[in-house]
Fold this protein.
Amino acid sequence: MTSAVYFADLRTGAKENLFHKIGRLMQLCGLEQCIAPGELVAVKLHFGERGNHSFIRPVFLRRVVDELHGRGAFPFLTDSSTLYPGERKEAVSALRCAIENGFAYATVNAPLVMLDGLRGHTTVEVPVPGELLQKVSIGAAIVEADALVTVSHFKCHELTGFGGALKNLGMGCASREGKMQQHSTVGPTVFPKRCTACGRCVTSCAHDAISFPSGTAVIDEERCVGCAHCVTACPEKAINIQWNEASDLVMKKMAEYALGALAGKRGKTLHINFITQVSPACDCYGYSDAPIVNDIGVCASVDPVALDQACADLVNGARGNNDTALRSGFDPGGDKFRGVHPNIHWEVQLEHGEKIGLGTRSYELIKI
């Protein structure tokens, strides 16, 4: 079985600009069959961190939203709060960051909704037929939406080799507890020197897992369920995640979380990847390093595995840029992702995604 992946390069003219091409990509993916009038449509994107500039331009999201409005649907832009302390650790900070990055209603013509609620804990437990997981914790707004459109910035990633549609689905649609489950096999850890014994972590913990036996917070591993409430509650950043999961296992869990994000939405999803400003690291950083290849274009498909495979092939088929984080694989056909992150086997997310039924790595690239 081969999936269709539609590709628009960045060549434009007076008769057709890039906004028109984005609309055509969505139509070719079966927008009319996917979206019905009156449906609530989650448009999952990355709001971008403050100081970062490689996230997808808000004006492009406006075109996606306008196409959905054209179907009589009710789209909303959505993202999840982060597992780590930072600018997007809860809804207020995250939405403020999104608006500062240009995702205001006046620009995108749609409301912004945090998919996991005010503090990242408004979730639904979804059963999945995974090899590692049988249930996953997905943000409630994703589960409750009638349809889902992912709009992903395709770039390198320090843990998964690259981040595209699969990461936007699996990691991006997960609750804070879900992100914890993917990243770590144990609960948070306390840095005693930073702890001021303010007690906010105790108030945030619903499992009585935190105490102060000697003036600093101590987490009872037997009581801790790994929800990570305390991580964002701590004003001193004294509680942090133990990033101890092997990247291969993270990618497999991420693919199984993507199954949960797509559950109940057969025929109601489509995915768009922007292969532009292909940065060497995630958009979660407060900066954007130089792109490792020139801008390539935009791809779309109803199959997230085929889409990410096609995008990976297009990046690897390009010539690498000098004076960037790229250290090898400069020639067309060279592995750009290992050229930046040599120890990451990025194919795992595609292999496992195909194995568990998310899609196929076999695709036909159709240039529009």
About this structure: The chain has two domains: 3-182+247-367, 185-240.
